[in-house]
Amino acid sequence: MTAVELNLRPVELLGLESDSNSSFLRGPARAPAAIRRVLDSGASNLCSENGIDLARHPLFARGHDHAIADNESDFLGIEAIVAELLDRGGRPLILGGDHAVTYPVLRAIAARHGPVSILHFDAHADIYQSFDDNRYSHASPFARILEDGLAQQLVQVGIRTLNDHQRMQVARYGVIVHEARRLDLERVADSIAAAPGPLYISVDIDVLDPSCAPGVSHHEPGGMTVREVLGLVQSIRTPVAGADIVEYNPTRDINDMTAAVAVKLMKEIAAVMLSCHNGDAISA
Q: Is residue 280 part of a domain?
């Protein structure tokens, strides 16, 4: 499949109401509904900064949200939900849910497209071999993804909580990590440009400094700004097979501030997914 063929596939919002693998607080299962409420509130339009109007675009679909029960079978069944969307010829833009959902989502993506490159924004590497005796923990999805061979490359951006175990995991799997403490946005952009396609984008909202996004379970000061993340997303020229926005916790939000950030990220990611490989927007 060529880059243009992939980019001409519809982008569909898919909510995954799952937080049973969260290690600290529950709440991200409520995120899809909260994000959609702000999306439809009229507080902002659906135009991206590159001029794509999602409200009018024929290749953008609102999709549906799925309640995921607190059991392993339903959690792993996320793969089938995403596979059904792919079978219809679409590309998923996931509204999480905690970060655990990225693993079954990537199982479906890789089954269709083969191993992908992953661009991962996060305060945490989420690469524990296991966390709290849960191999499907939201702190472990990238360990599962890499050990299953679902990714040909993993680029992580904004990380600021690496411990010795995670550094060992990073070395073990050859992960490219751009830590927040010495973040060079030009180097990050170069890493993104060099990543072989197709690309999968995973945005954990807590990559942002809590001053930008208070509605997360794990407040980790010293994070990125919204503009920094948007700039990197907008730099993408590699065809995108799918994406997720995860770990928004509405129970911790203030005046829907973080929901509005999630909506903004969704619009800009969707716009990148709906743009041609040469960066020219597909007209609506």
A: no
Q: Considering the domain boundaries, does residue 220 fall inside one?
A: yes
220: Cβ contacts below 8 Å, ≥ 6 apart:
123, 124, 160, 161, 206, 210
User: Would residue 233 count as lying in a domain?
Assistant: yes
Question: Would you state the structure tokens that stand for residue 8, as one six-digit string?
Answer: 């001409």
d(CA 277, CA 185): 21
CA distance 101 to 30: 14
User: At 88, which CATH number?
Assistant: 3.40.800.10
Q: Establish if 282 belongs to a structural domain.
A: no
Average model confidence (pLDDT) across the chain: 95
Helix, strand, coil abundance in the chain, percent, nearest 5: 40, 20, 40
Give the domain extent around 203. 16-250+267-273
Q: How far apart are CA 183 and CA 75, in angstroms?
A: 34
* HSE toward the beta carbon, residue 169, CA cutoff 13 A: 23
Query: 153: helix, coil or strand?
Result: strand
Q: Is the pTM of this model over 0.90?
A: yes
Tokens of 9: 């596939």
Query: What percent of the chain clears pLDDT 90, i.e. is strictly above it?
Result: 93
**Domain count for the chain:** 1
